[in-house]
Design brief:
By secondary structure, this protein is of the alpha+beta class. The chain is built from three helices and nine strands.
Length: 165
Amino acid sequence: MPTLSIEILCAGVTKLVLPDGLPFGTALSCPPRSDRGPSPLWEGHMGRLGGTVVHCFDLPPRADGRRWAYDIVEETGWSRFTFTPATRAGFLVLLGSLLRQSQEGIWFYSDAQWSNPPRAFRAAYSLDRFVSYHDRFGIRMNTAIRLVAGKADVAVRPACQMQAV
C-alpha cells in the first residue's frame, strides 16, 4: 500500500471535542496543517478554508513520530480503500460528531503516495451518502470529499446501525 494519510477538516471551527474510545489514533492541528509530506496534496485547500484538522492514524503511533493510516483501512486496489471492520463504526461516529460541530461542513481528505491524481468531489455528500459510496465503491485515494449535515445525519444513530457490513 502506498503511504496514506487520512485527515478531516472541520471547516471554520477552532475548538473541537472528539468522541472517546475511537479504535484509531487522532490528533488535532489548528491552523490546519497536513501530516503528509514532503508535498501534501490538500494543505493549501485546508489553509484557504481554515478550521481544525483531525489526523486519523494507526495505533500504536510510530516511534519516529510519523502518522500513517495503514492498519485502519483496507486497500481495495491500488486506487481505493475502505475502513476496516474494526474501524468503520469509529469513523462514522467521528464524522457524525464533527458534522454536528461545524456549520460549514467537513472535508474528508485522503492523500496517498504513488496513487491517483488528486480530485475534489464537486457535490457535497451527506453522511449517509458518504457511507453508501464507501460501501459500494470504496473511497478513492487522493480525494477530497465535502460532507454536510443532511436530515438523516443530524440525529445520533444507535451503534448497531454503524457496525461493519
